Amino acid sequence: MTDRLPLPDAAAMTPQQKAAADALIAGPRKGVYGPFLPLLRSPVLLERVASVGEYLRFDSVLDARIRELVTCASARHVSNQFEWHMHAPLAIKAGVNPGAIEALRVGARPQGLATDEQAALDLADELMRTHGVSDPTWQAALAAFDEQGVVELTTLVGYFVMVSWLMNAAHTPAGAQGAPLEPFPQ
After folding, report:
1. Does 49 share its domain with 73?
2. What total of structural domains would you count in the chain?
3. CATH number at residue 93
4. pLDDT tens sequence across 117-157
5. Are 51 and 85 members of one domain?
6. What is the DSSP letter of 174?
7. Of 90, 23, 71, nearest to 50 (Cα)?
8. How many CA atoms lie within 13 A of 62 on its CB side?
9. C-alpha dihedral over 140, 102, 153, 183, to 10 degrees?
10. 132 in a domain, yes or no?
11. SS3 letters for 86-143?
12. Residue 178 clears pLDDT 70, i.e. is over it
């Protein structure tokens, strides 16, 4: 697949695009890649999406292990190459069992998760499958993460599905990080 919205040549960027790119390079991401390649076509939207993502990735009340596990589940749900290949190693580094990541990769339900991981994955999975969350799933997540944590967890799912959809539509490449993530059978 051809990248539909690759990084524009620096000389062709508008001043707003250049400012948005410079802000990404100066921030914790240290570069323009992934969803920010297509988002560069809308610099104000890029800045706002980047700000939400920066909070969710780097400042959320959720533990990095939970954030990365749910990011992987979200990326896998929509078969997004970039987010999967970026976050699967980060999840393992954050303490997620490699077997849980492999189970997600092949479309199986991870086994032997910690209680908070199970609550997070249950909420994410139910939200992506049914577009809502049942009372038992909500209560389990609330017990594990409190109200702020559940709001941030739910928003994390939405954020990563959103940027994954954008990259899927734009054919944003995953880079050279491992074997392609195969789509689930339909």
Report:
1. no
2. 2
3. 1.20.1290.10
4. 999 999 999 999 999 999 999 999 999 999 999 999 999 99
5. no
6. -
7. 23
8. 32
9. -120
10. yes
11. HHHHHHHHCCCCHHHHHHHHHCCCCCCCCHHHHHHHHHHHHHHHHCCCCHHHHHHHHH
12. no
Residue 37's closest CA among 174, 181, 178, 167? Answer: 167
Q: How confident is the model at residue 182 (pLDDT cuts 50, 70, 90)?
A: confident
Place of tokens 């959809």: 165
124 found inside a domain: yes
Q: Are 14 and 40 a contacting pair, CB within 8 Å?
A: no
DSSP 138-160: HHHHHHHHHHHHHHHHHHHHHHH
Given pLDDT bands bounded at 50, 70 and 90, which one contains residue 186?
very low
80 and 163 share one domain: yes
Task: Tell which residue, 79, 108, 147, 52, has the closest CA to residue 138.
Answer: 147
If asked whether residues 143 and 54 sit together in one domain, one would say no
Same domain, 45 and 96: no
* Polymer length in residues for the chain: 186
Residues 72 and 117 in one domain: yes
- pLDDT band of residue 180 (cuts 50, 70, 90) is low
Token duo for residue 53: 């993502």
Q: What's the domain range around 42?
A: 15-58
